[in-house]
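Let us begin with a simple case.
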Amino acid sequence: MSTPQPSIKPAVPNFSSGPCAKRPGYDINQLDLSALGRSHRSSLGKKALAKVISDTAEILQLPAGYRVGIVPASDTGAMEMILWSMLGPRPVDICYWESFGQGWYGDIVKQLKLTEVNEIKADYGQLPDLSKVNPDNDVVFTWNGTTSGVKVENGDFIKNDRQGLTICDATSAVFAMPLPWGKLDVTTFSWQKVLGGEGAHGIIILSPRAVERLESYIPSWPLPKIFRLTAGGKLIEGIFNGATINTPSMLCVADYQDSLNWVKEIGGVQASIQKSLDNLAVLENFVAENSWINFLAEDPNIRSNTSVCLSVDLSDAQIKTFINLLAEQHAAYDIGAYKDAPSGLRIWCGSTVEKHDLQALLPWLTWAYQEVTA
């Protein structure tokens, strides 16, 4: 006999970890589309680009002297640009505990072919021993492991008197977790994660120390034009004022501006962070009440409040059926674990997801479990 279905479904069943749900109340007709069809190098285009840059810095409360730039190819493009442009003069500590961090390690040793590289790693669900990071070395790490649901607890492992640079992939953390900006020399992210923006564009945030490295170091390998952040030994300041390296989508820029306006409206980055923490609490209560589901990150101190990864007491085939059942019922879309991660669920809890939608999802999780185990 089939288990009765819950009577209420999430109003927005989009729980994907990227691209993520659009902000509550999103309406594409509300976007300022005045720059569409215009050159991004026109005064109107440059003004729109400059505004998202300045608003990003203001909302994130970046320290004086930090620069924000828009670059191609999402967070991946932003990180690759930094790795190829800045690594080489010092040994590198690479910390990873999931697939994207492991990918940066692969690029550093297989593509850049650097030899002085220290691998500091942990399995899915765990955080490596970050005390092993050498302050004399450059360090590359993700703040939040999007595919493992494990985040850095804080920036205490980063020394204030460090000689190396800190290079942080924060794409599923920025706007959702407090970041110690004074300890981050390079930070990258993309619009389609926490803010639910559109893809294809990345953001690079540089500290003055990072700019000094760019202006004093020339890599031994050739750099494609799309990776170049300097010209004649000086930072290309235009990138950080709205003169992008290549042509951006002004529609995506307008969409990002809409997201930034929304963060301001709800109370700024602190409100965005709290909204995500409140969402995580919904799932924490559910897991505490059900023995068949658990967090991949058992330690709550390192548990992500955006990309929440869960293990389920089911076989791989049953988990696939579980996920398909929820999608067929329009109760939850795209909640399967990342392809390289342990089999399970991944439910996005960033601030663009509404708490009441997560609450409505919970009975459906129970229903799907009962269906596949009946």
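The second case is a distinct protein. As before, the sequence precedes its structure tokens.
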Amino acid sequence: MKFKTLALLLCMIPALLFAQGAAEQAILESDYYQAVDANGRILKLQEKPSKVLIAGKAGNMPANALFLFPEVTEMDLTLPKTDQGLGDFFSFIRPSLNDNPRISQVASIEEIASYQSDLVLTKATHFTSIAQKLDQLGVPNFTMNLESYEDWKKEVVELGKLLKNNTRAAEILDLYEQRLDPIRETASSIDAKDKKRVLLLQASTADNTYSYKIAPDAWMQTWMVETIGAEAVWKGANKAANGWSTVSFEQIASWDPDIIIVVSYRTPTDQYIEAIYESEIWSTLKAVKNRQVKASPHDMMNYIQPVASWILGLQWMAAEVYPERYPELDMRNEVTSFYQDFYHLTDEKKLGFLRDRYSKSVAINTL
């Protein structure tokens, strides 16, 4: 019976693969531009979208995904504010975006609809506040989550279908896998007893007071630490699930990690690293004693977040936590090839600017 079942399954696999390929080919040959968004809705457009608006907060995430496709160069784009505080990457690579005002991140549904866009992209978290209301007005919209690598893999494919450019979608995922494979292979060879204990903290300041937060278990930041073969010491401690959670120094001290990685999305991290090293209470921690408090890398966006450059953050993290295992990894070269391969950026002056931004962001780690 087991043999018959296995034989049946083996016979079915080619048929299923053929059916999937035939379905994708049918979409490409159809008169529609069709895909499934992060909320499971099927969007069907009569024409390839040429006038596109990105709405809502965290618009830099769907913008990152869209800019990976060559079609973006011909689009009439309206973006919300995408500068997290370190610079606006999208107008940097496409200066004409500065010719038109940005739409507010909290623009009303009426204002969004008034642009009469072929397509509105928004984060899946805005499903109720934006997407459903646009549905009622008959405005085509597409949600993207992009909070994990699994999201990126699935949603880049769907965006490729919506643009009828499955070839580029597959190329993007292949580029990610090419950089991921050696990290996965190295991580698999690390014995449990040799795993570094890592704490990743998001830092912020208000009224001259520093505070630190930990990411949810399911978010990309936690996945990144585990993917390089390290232990995310905070895993299980964030009960918020849908956002960063403030953590006390007492809790940090109880974890006493081997390495602390400090992330700041709006400002350079130098001030936080300096404050930690100058603090008497932090001086008791193993990571502080061993000078293993690390500023996270960035150029115009921090790499330790689910924007397209997260792969650079993963590569940097792997080499920073396990330098002896990545002796030939040159991050300046990786930054260059990333923007060439993923964004087709060829301007050497701009590439040099991004490389220098990266180098400056992590310079404090070598002091």
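The CA atoms of residues 228 and 318 lie 5 Å apart. The two ends are 67 Å apart (CA to CA).
Keep these points in mind for the review questions at the end of the chapter.
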